[in-house]
Prior knowledge:
The protein is an alpha/beta fold. It has helices spanning about 15-20, 25-40, 40-45, 60-70, 75-85, 90-95, 105-115, 120-130, 130-135, 245-250, 275-280, 300-305, 305-315, 320-330, 340-365, and strands spanning about 140-150, 160, 195, 205, 215-225, 230-240, 260-265, 285-290. The chain is globular, with a radius of gyration of 24 Å.
Amino acid sequence: MRGGDEQTGELFSYVDLEARVRRDHPLRSIREIVSAALTILEREFAALYSPIGRPSIPREKLLRAMLLQAFYSIRSERLLMERLEYDRLFRWFVGIGVDDPAWDHSTFSKNRDRLLEGDIAAKFLAAVLAQPRVKKLLSTDHFSVDSTLIEAWASMKSVRPKEAPKDGSGEPPAAGGGRNIEADFHGQKRSNDTHASTTDPQARLYKKGKGKEAKLCFLGHGLMENRNGLLVDACLTLADGHGERVAALHMIEPRADRPRAVTLGADKAYDTQDFVNELRAMNVSPHVAQNMSGRRSAIDGRTTRHDGYAVSQRIRKRIEEAFGWIKTIAGQDKTKFRGRDRVGWAFTFAAAAYKLVRLPRLIAETG
């Protein structure tokens, strides 16, 4: 018998979200890890709010929703709330009932910004690492470090002289050309010392390499353990020639406080005498790629003669997989935030999301 094409809504709903998500769905394992990490951060959440007043969006639900935004490449909070309105998988993961309304996107954004005050992204990353089943996956002896460019949410047309020239050449183009007025930058010399963006003053002009164009950027940094290629630390700095090495020393220092030396793999950009000497002073073996192009490398036979040096050079390239996911899937290639603090928060949180994506399979393989 052929059924009728009826579209009448039901008066009552008896949907059990828990029963609608299959038992082997990868989000189940991720949700367990996330819930355990959020329990560790309960005191941190409580310190961010006053004991009186109207209740806000629960921090736990807010962070779960932000993880879904990274997992599924949802580009805005407005679209995330729209997806949360009709997607039962999203509702189950976040922890809201099937009949509960989704939040307003502006309310969600304001509550998200409050997490900046407590540096929750870095603490969430650490809370995931602290769990016993995750801890056994990590190497404590061998690490790799690298950096990537995060393009700022600012146009090159927003770059203006810090001190307006007397001839008026630093003034914006006259109105009449629409929102995206054309501008000719040829012949103008720009540098971070003399110019800054009016949209995001903390963004810096930076070139990826010789012959490349300068862009307004920040530098995102990641520290990876070499056993399974998981990020164990992440941070963001201003884009300058020293940011990579300063961030690397900052991230490896807490892990080098032990009697046995640890190794740190890195590319040619880290091959400087000062950086190598700093690592050796911290009891870290500098497994840095040698830069022999017209100069003398700071890495000599004391390091390269060991078999572990070649292993570190091969494994260190896996950190590019993390950066690729963070920039392509999690949408951090061109940030949607302004200011170093907000951009850094989003980058660190995306690094935590990448690790959560890989953990279910790794945990299943190790039992």
